[in-house]
Amino acid sequence: MIYFDNSATTKPYKEVLDSFVTVSSEYFGNPSSLHSLGGQAEKLLSQAREQVAGLLKVKANEIYFTSGGTESNNIAIKGAALLNRHKGRHLITTSVEHASVRAAMEQLEQEGFEITRLPVDEYGRITVEDLEKSIRKETILISIMQVNNEVGTIQPIEEIGSILKKYPSILFHVDAVQSVGKVPLSLYKNNVDLCSLSGHKFHGLKGTGVLFIREGARLTPLFSGGNQERRMRSGTENVAGFVAMAKALRMTMMKSDAGIAGLAEIQHLLRKSLTKIEDIQIHTPVQHAAPHILNFSLKGIKSEVFIHALEQNGIFVSTTSACSSKKKSPSNTLLAMGVPESLAESAIRISLSFDNTEAEALKVLSVIEKTVNQLRKVMK
Q1: So what's the pLDDT on residue 182?
Q2: Taking 80 as the threshold, does the pLDDT of residue 325 lie above it?
Q3: Among 199, 228, 250, where does a domain finish?
Q4: Which domain range does residue 337 map to?
Q5: Which of 17, 31, 309, 327 is the one with CA 20 to 30 A from 63?
Q6: Which positions are catalytic?
Q7: pLDDT band at 125 (very low <50, low <70, confident <90, very high)
Q8: CA 149: distance to chain centroid?
Q9: What sign does the dihedral 105-109-115-121 (CA atoms) show?
Q10: Segment 40-62, tens digit of pLDDT
């Protein structure tokens, strides 16, 4: 099996699974309980929080554990909007955000908020000039993803953060779910107030995530009923999952420098070879792109047909984001980039992890070329 769908989810590290089993079986107490078993669980939770904070170079009291990227995005966006609506009801985002951000914005729109969705160029990137022109006195939140989950485009987070120093009342939220370990992000330097992470995107477990909330930033909690996560996210904590996620983040960061270089080499190999295949158009830009994502279209071939053909050869890739891949509609991101609908319906996403190899890439390229030729014959 060759797994090239790591933007959908990653395989948990063995050490992460071992950590989860150990904590679940030996330290299963509720961290809110007063007895010693609860105290042990609470200590592990605090250690996991401190470890995540250290790896992100922030304070432990700025780290809140969640169930994943979708929840983190919803808490950040809705929590910021609801608490600050007396200051203004204008929010800024882009036309190529993850479904959880798009849907949260649409829901707020129904509640009377006004949303500016910045356009992107043919490479999927906004301009900081467009963003600054969109800022008003009523603007309370800007939400921009760092790395696009479908095409890998990197947004100008550093430049946006620099601009927002002039607007201290505007909260800056970054969806960094796809960038952890692969594209650096300095939360303090880039003036980020809120940042979303998801454990299963960096070899942790599904159902675990992080929301960074800068000290001093305030949000309205979405859940009620308990005082967990300093009242920001009520509900008994998934201690074993968060301990395992902290380990996954540490292991990913340790592999980062060498891993990024390896990813870039494999991506270059894939790009160079795919451009030689007739009627393939690559959508991932050469510049301002993450090293682990490559998106391309096969003219005249439906992506679902191609994906199932590759699967018969033990190769796993995807179409759009995992949250939208079972829908028949073309990618919103590609359409926003100006890609014709016929090509958008034929899009394929390859997404790599540090464990993928050049040998796997060569095998995938061979199967892709063979599959394209076979499908072309059938279609004639």
Answers
A1: 97
A2: no
A3: 250
A4: 2-8+255-379
A5: 17
A6: 323
A7: very high
A8: 6
A9: positive
A10: 999 999 999 999 999 999 999 99
CB 142 within 8 A of CB 171: yes
Q: HEC profile for the chain? A: CEECECCCCCCCCHHHHHHHHHHHHHCCCCCCCCCHHHHHHHHHHHHHHHHHHHHHCCCHHHEEEECCHHHHHHHHHHHHHHHCCCCCCEEEEECCCCHHHHHHHHHHHHCCCEEEEECCCCCCCCCHHHHHHHCCCCEEEEEEECECCCCCEECCHHHHHHHHHHCCCCEEEEECCCCCCCCCCCCCCCCCCEEEEEHHHCCCCCCCEEEEECCCCCCCCCCCCCCHHHHCCCCCCCHHHHHHHHHHHHHHHHHHHHHHHHHHHHHHHHHHHHCCCCCEEECCCCCCECCCEEEEEECCCCHHHHHHHHHCCCEECECCCCCCCCCCCCCHHHHHCCCCHHHHCCEEEEECCCCCCHHHHHHHHHHHHHHHHHHHHHHC
| Bigger pLDDT: 378 vs 89 | 89
Long-range contact list for 52-55, CB < 8 A, 24+ apart? 52/210, 52/245, 52/246, 52/249, 55/246, 55/249, 55/250, 55/253
Return the CATH number at 110: 3.40.640.10
pLDDT at residue number 129: 97
Q: Are 118 and 223 part of one and the same domain?
A: yes
Domains of the chain: total: 2
CA distance 205 to 20: 9
Q: How many CB atoms lie within 10 A of CB 351?
A: 27
Query: What is the chain's mean pLDDT, rounded?
Result: 94
Report field, pTM of the whole predicted structure over 0.85: yes
Phi and psi (nearest 5°) for 44? Answer: -65, -40
211 and 146 belong to one structural domain? yes
Q: What is Dmax (Cα atoms) for the chain?
A: 72
Q: Facing residues of 294 across strands?
A: 350
Tell me how far apart the alpha carbons of residues 325 and 330 are, in angstroms, rounded to a whole number. Answer: 9
| pLDDT attached to residue 327 | 57
pLDDT at 350: 98
